[in-house]
């Protein structure tokens, strides 16, 4: 009877896993060891883009509603750059995207005006209210915190200084070093290598579904921060966990052995 | 004095080129021979997306203004697929993008509703008014016309049949065959190879800046169709020519030797 019993147990476990995928998450989580390096996406994940709505809206003749379209157009064209084997830094792509959105909506805008509307406000984004405390808790718990962004290294350093978060990070990695935008798989593999750790010893924390999709596809564990107005990409592998903010992230990671 | 004269001539030519980039286009055009195959993008280039505004708007609780955001999100995530080495067909990516836009805007929408709002209307888009006549003129002039799209082969065939254009095309190429979305350089190279011609013997006609960017970067000549609400990607190489519609395209190509 022993082999049959084993078979039935396996079969039941298989059915349970298939029927109740929600149960799989805690099991998976238990197997994840404490990450040696936590990579953080910056814009929206740590910093609040809301304050840009005004400057971008003003550049677009009062059309604050076009902020999501601009952001999406910028992200699309960052991948157009990689797909066509070109590279311009993220601020330049963002400026071009704003000019396209303006033109497509019949709004007059010069390159200089577009650049001013984006670059300075982007460098001065405030942190979401719980971020400083959450990151501080993680650092106190012994975690190594590193940013991993599509922005330039210098840009993200300025952003973190202005948001009062610069002291919490061991390093700031920018894809400008390999000139391939996230979520290219190589960006995640390069980041782990750059920090001298294995992919499975890291963790990506991001508020963007496409970023989570890339990390998971590359073999990097990922936690999604469900900021208002953000959602997962339904066709990608699910994150290992979803949290509402960085305070909850610190609570979750604080319980790991 | 000869070297100085040459230097001055070069300097003046350089300054003139820099100051008047518009002058570069006709010179470049003269060097292009008659293309052996003309590749056409389909959505927006030949077919009018305007009729989708209603169905997408209805799915989004009346928010017709979100159509450009949906389209941009779909294009972004088609490249997310390629960047993360995944592939879902364009209709599935479009459905996922619509669900994300709905969720990010607090609108309830099921996958089935999202799919219905997109797939059927997309297959029944009407041609822009001048397209049939313009393509017919090109065919009469002896050009070989082929579609090259991110949609599935079957999808574009249905679209062309419904729009009354199917008889004008020698073939319909879909990136589903190589599972890499335009503007990946490989898609343009593969298309030329598939038709048995050299890249420089082809021509891409598209109403999207990112498509023109990919073709030019791959070494394929390209003409931009400046449909209302569309603009070039300012950071990419310029197209060989810009036309306002397919009738003007036929006029321009009719003058070639």
CATH class of the largest domain in chain A: Alpha Beta
Low-confidence stretches of chain A: 6-31
Under CATH, the homologous superfamily of the largest domain in chain A reads HAD superfamily/HAD-like
Largest Cβ-defined interface: A-B, 43 and 43 residues
Tertiary shape of chain A:
globular
Evaluate the radius of gyration of chain A.
Answer: 20 Å
Give the quaternary arrangement of the chains: homodimer
Distance between the termini of chain A: 38 Å
Structural class by sheet pairing and helices of chain A? alpha/beta
What is the averaged pLDDT score of chain A?
A: 90
Per DSSP E runs of 2 or more residues, the count of β-strands of chain A stands at 6
Summarize the main sheet of chain A: 6 strands, parallel
Strands in their spatial order, largest beta sheet of chain A: 3-2-1-4-5-6
Could you tell me the strand content of chain A as a percent range?
5-15%
**How much helicity do the residues of chain A have?**
40-55%
CATH topology of the largest domain in chain A: Rossmann fold
- How many discrete structural domains of chain A? 2
Total helical segments of chain A? 11
Following the backbone from N to C, one meets helices and strands of chain A in this order, namely HHEHHHHHEHEHEHEEH
Describe this structure in words.
Chain A is α/β, with parallel strands linked by helices and 257 residues long. The first copy, chain A, has two domains: 34-47 and 125-254, HAD superfamily/HAD-like (Rossmann fold, 3-Layer(aba) Sandwich); 49-123, Putative phosphatase, domain 2 (DNA polymerase, domain 1, Orthogonal Bundle). Helices cover 50% and strands 10% of the residues of chain A. In chain A, strands 3-2-1-4-5-6 form a six-stranded parallel sheet, with helices on both faces.
